Structures are given as structure tokens and as C-alpha cells.
TrEMBL record:
Keywords: DNA-binding, Transcription, Transcription regulation. The keyword Ribosomal protein does not apply. The keyword Transferase does not apply. Residues 1-106 form the HTH araC/xylS-type domain. The lineage of its organism: Bacteria, Pseudomonadati, Pseudomonadota, Alphaproteobacteria, Acetobacterales. Pfam families: HTH_18. This is AraC family transcriptional regulator.
């Protein structure tokens, strides 16, 4: 628990940065394997998955927040360390049940769905 809490403190200090397992382990003075075991015990997921879910949540907050009106999905995703945008969109949809564009549209008070005449049957 102590190692996971310390890792979360490291992550909080770098809130809008993409942080990697080896950087966290080095900052805490533990091995990557020990860090991975600690996260598996506490969160039932790998550090890598935890970091991905964390970054997905940061993207969602950025798109849905008050600054979301001026945000671009691509720029926000790239800023938070997602380099493969197709994979990012799939993971985002899996986690939140909507696309990043849908989140942004809701934040801006409009629907992202195409008008009825443009929808496919």
C-alpha cells in the first residue's frame, strides 16, 4: 500500500505528463517488478494499465471540463501521451462507452450524432 500511495504522489506531481513505469520505480527506489506486484495487489491491474486508465481519465476531464469548448481531441490525446490515435479511441470507447468526440460534443452542449439524413440505415 505504501509503495502504491507513493507512486500516486509521484503521479499527482506530474498530473498532465505521460509518466512511465520505469520512471515511477526509479523515483521510488524500487524495482519495476516490485512496483508491478504492488499495483496488482492493490488495484488488480498492472502499472501499465493503471497509467493508461489514468491518462484516459485525464483526457476525459480535459474534454468534458470548462476548457473543453476549445479543446481538440487529437491535441489533447497527444498531449497526454497517446501516440496511436485509433488505439486511443478504441480504449476510450471501451472504458467510457462513448467516443472522445461524443464527450467533447456533450461538453459543448450538442449531439455528435449525424443528422438523420446522414445516418446509414
Amino acid at each position: 500500500m505504501r509503495v502504491v500511495k507513493a507512486a500516486e504522489d509521484v503521479l499527482s506531481a506530474a498530473l498532465r505528463c505521460a509518466v512511465y513505469t520505469q520512471e515511477i520505480a526509479a523515483a521510488l527506489g524500487v524495482s519495476e517488478r516490485f512496483l508491478t506486484s504492488a499495483f496488482a495487489a492493490v488495484y488488480r491491474m498492472s502499472v501499465h494499465r493503471y497509467l493508461c486508465v489514468r491518462r484516459l481519465n485525464l483526457v476525459r476531464c480535459a474534454l468534458a471540463g470548462p476548457q473543453g469548448a476549445t479543446a481538440l481531441v487529437k491535441t489533447t490525446a497527444l498531449d497526454l501521451g497517446f501516440w496511436h490515435l485509433g488505439q486511443f479511441t478504441r480504449e476510450y470507447r471501451t472504458l467510457f462507452g462513448e467516443t472522445p468526440t461524443d464527450t467533447l460534443a456533450k461538453a459543448n452542449g450538442r449531439s455528435s450524432a449525424a443528422p438523420p439524413e446522414q445516418r446509414r440505415p
